[in-house]
Specification:
Elements lengths: L2 H5 L18 H27 L6 H33 L4
Length: about 100
């Protein structure tokens, strides 16, 4: 895997496991994405707790999970900031 495919939004890191069904609103898709990000974070924390408590030897997998969760959160924050910035520009437009 090259660096471009690792950080592109089409990468598996950012894809929601639930297929988008006809009739889903943008809000529903956004909530699915937020739930997916939360699930990834919980799984990463669980893996790291297992390593710390000695229940697992997979420290490499735990670190990869934490990094994946961190990248997803950074992406979500960037999207939120861009949407907020666009909204502010629309509100400040003079008619």
């Amino acid at each position: 895997m090259n660096i471009t495919s690792a950080i592109s939004p089409s990468s598996e890191i950012f894809q929601v496991n639930n297929p988008v069904k006809k009739g889903n609103s943008s809000f529903d898709r956004m909530m699915d994405t937020v739930e997916h990000i939360n699930t990834t974070q919980v799984q990463a924390n669980t893996k790291m707790e297992d390593v710390i408590e000695g229940k697992s030897e997979d420290s490499h997998g735990a670190l990869i999970g934490l990094e994946k969760a961190d990248i997803q959160m950074q992406f979500a924050v960037t999207v939120r900031d861009k949407v907020t910035q666009g909204y502010q520009q629309i509100i400040n437009m003079q008619i």
